[in-house]
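Two quick folds needed for the group meeting slides. Do the first one here.
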Amino acid sequence: MAEEGAGSIGPLHGLRVIEMGQLVAGPFCGQILGDLGAEVIKIEQPGKGDPIREWGRALPRGESLWWSVIGRNKKSVTVDLRTQRGQTVAARLISRADILVENFRPGTLERWGLGYEKLSARNPGLVLTRVSGFGQTGPYSSRPGYGSIGEAMGGLRYIVGDPSTPPSRVGISIGDTLAAVFAAIGTLGAVYERTRSGRGQVVDSAIYEAVLGIMESIVPEWVLSGYQRERSGAILPNVAPSNVYPTADGGWMLIAANQDTVFARLAAAMGKPELASDPRFSTHGSRGERQQELDALVTEFTLTQHSRELERLLLAHAVPVGKIYRPADMVTDEQFIARKSIVSTDHPTLGSVPMQNAFPRLSRTDGGVRWPGPQLGEHTLEILESVGGYSRADIDALRAGGVL
């Protein structure tokens, strides 16, 4: 069991979630809800399960560590949703749930006889959370839509990377996870609204719109002024100094001192307090106009310092500074340790598996990591009996028929 959060029930304790998605976009929404204490029952294909069980470059003993994280705090039930009997089982479980999360291509639930009209007729308070590439409506709704496509069409890919190279990607599934986060927010909004109306509703989270939602002011900048943001590598144009700077020991430190008062403190730390009143650098605008020149001055300074010395010096002057962290840095950092940002949970074959904790923190009813991604079908009997109301004989018959 988890080192941290095992005794906490979380603020969503008492809510039951059926998760029917796979890979990242739907399951990450389920992970968030589970981290906050909801009972998350994941329905998977018998014999195969969620493909994420096989994803990741590091597969110790053939086990996906990615699955350990995204499948955590969930219960695994195997049901063949492509069969009529399997769809009946799913409908029975959903009728006794608060939330259904799915990220199939739009129309899939309807083909299985599990559209919202039918489900809500049996369970009027059901919140159906649907995550897809392009949403449930519009001319693109039926297109296959992975997170990478949403990142491209939502505007993120175009501005990520060095201007001398083609558009780059962020090194994680950011489009999928953004859509999942927005889906979780929408789900909680729908659950809260249900306390007034007694009725559920459909939450429609599209990946491309989730990406678009974090793109700051790029749309009005283009429409009203014709300004198009371009790829700018490690900087934001005209925001200086704020960059990654090399150190004498071959390290890299991110220094963010673009505000007037903070730049004055950086100049003092550099031994050049006069830079703060120099007309070339005294205002945000002037520093932005001379961004390359200013970065060269900061680099000249940082190359005389070892990483730890530089960090101590800048922090002593209240200048925001941070090392570019890798996992090896995270697991030993005193801030991560003090706040239990990374916790360990017991895995049946891998032993202790560390992973990021549940966020954000709540002062009274905090969430937590209670167990890692379960074995395929581990909770089938328990859930079909306790939630579905099936007898052992019924369950044996379903197994014999290849439904479970």
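Then this one, please, same format:
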Amino acid sequence: MDSVKQPPRPDGADAPATPPDFEAALLSLRGHRLRPELHLEEVPAPTRIAPYALALTGEVNRTRDPDDLLGSGRFVVLYDPDGQDAWNGEFRAIIMGRARMEPEVAQDPLLGEVGWAWLTDALAQCDAEYHSLSGTVTRVLSETFGGLELRGGEVEIEVRASWTPGTTDLGPHLRAWALLLSQVSGLPPIPDNVSPMSRRR
């Protein structure tokens, strides 16, 4: 994954250089080989929560045709050299993953617990060091109307969470988010002895 650019610098001609810890964190996000169905893009990061930030969006799509979109999500890294009490640290990872679900699956009363287990299992599987984890799993019902007539509906699952990484190595956290997106989107797991390969154009 080569979409992470150079670390942003604060505004101003005399602005200090990017803090070494944040630069190390950004470098740790580069070069990861993720599933070919997952397409990442760097987008403008939030600027009011922390002095330094990075944001990526992800789409799970086998063909890149919008009609074939299986799921989507967001991965945000915040860094405050002074730390924030709510984070219990200097870094904070914020993620979201969303995908459509079959109506019968969406009616499962344990869906929330399953969605949360996907996240915690992904963090454990990727050996991501973290603490202060919190979040929500939401079922979203969207109904489409034409005039007064109900034309159709769809159900989505949405997992939102944030946690404080234990080190500046954020690679495992990126891979855990990618794994969560794959699971939410219904992709089959990749066998342990098979490496994901990027498609060539």
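Slide caption for protein two: The radius of gyration is 18 Å.
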